């Protein structure tokens, strides 16, 4: 039986506490407690996380930690780290943290030495990546590989594509990567444009190897290749990443060039498995190992830090605080790093596929809202698009700001005396300051603003944000950031009592798409589909295609 956290004493205390402090203003909280900015922050690995600009007091934190206690977060965390079957609706172990265990340490999952299995695959990935990078692995015509094209979707795409962009500075063997995911043919056609089949290697990445989009794109890519180089070329230009050897072989890829993983790795938790092969090829096995080590650093922090200084726990509890007590609907993720442009999209799958659930693990309905909606764009672009609503809109949208002390690229400012990266970071600091403290009508009037304009210029402030800073966007830091969010999604799921590792909600749409597909092109009039909207839409499509 799942715990109904909303019936707990800790929840009731938080409700009362919320009533008592909801009207407090960050301006006053900072004025009353000069040590707040120094104290309400935590370090985890290389990350400095400032959570002082949240609408909390030290008592709020104490009560949130009590909530985590009551929800059994620490015990469930330990079960996850031991690879237990906490994905109950699929009766599967959850073991993604085993993917980044250092050599020599291990955990037993489903009776097997997961550490040994992981390092066996990592070793094969390393050999393969080295061979491609050094030119020992060549295409069917004897030419070196210049481009890897990863074909996958969801967790078999979003992680690699995000990490490839984030680590573009570490691409060092003259091999580029492209990523194809959408069943919209525009994706594959655009990504193949300009590529030479003789120098292109496809990595077909699919946990199940049954995903419509991926198999459709992979088949089309194989046609593109064989039209140029003949059927025998497939072996040198297609490799697979999957848990399903049978289907890989059925597709026509030699299982000797298949890199496996396990059903205890959820798709959205798989970038550090063989699903990251495209990244390993472009940045090299050593950088990939640093990426894994970064994730492990955060795993250790999550496993050992007490709740009050445990970064993933704090971020999760703050998410719960705003979602369930302030009624916030979403969280903005705002990386002040263009290289992290795909990070918000990556986190969307992580959090929304994991925690977008209406029933608890035992099937009983939840009694509070779950599943934060993550969205965002890199700063400063977002500032010129949607920050207006963050600052003066009627919704409360907590935001995570992410920035780095040292740039991956830098250029001088207009007058040549400063650094563009410093301007970028000054914007990050300014935004969090303005969100928190705003500007009052009195302050605006005192500047001589005409009275009729004053209300338009008032900046309400009191809008919460977390600031996450790191020295530089290195492979290790990226690994830490990803694991930070993985674990905070997990903690929120435990508080809500849901199974964060299944995704039944995506199945029906897939099934119905397969059923509807023949109706779009059949010679006969399509049979009614049970609702007049779908019938009319299909008719329109048939008339206009
Ligand atoms: O549709 C959801 C999903 O199952 C994701 O969870 C997964 O990451 C994605 O599809 C791709 O699945 P696969 O790796 O099996 O192709």
TrEMBL record:
Keywords: Cytoplasm, Gluconeogenesis, Glycolysis, Isomerase
Active site (record annotation): 353, 384, 510
Subcellular location per the Swiss-Prot or TrEMBL entry: Cytoplasm
One GO molecular-function entry: monosaccharide binding
Broad enzyme group: isomerase
PANTHER family named among the record's database cross-references: GLUCOSE-6-PHOSPHATE ISOMERASE (PTHR11469)
Name of the protein in its database record: Glucose-6-phosphate isomerase
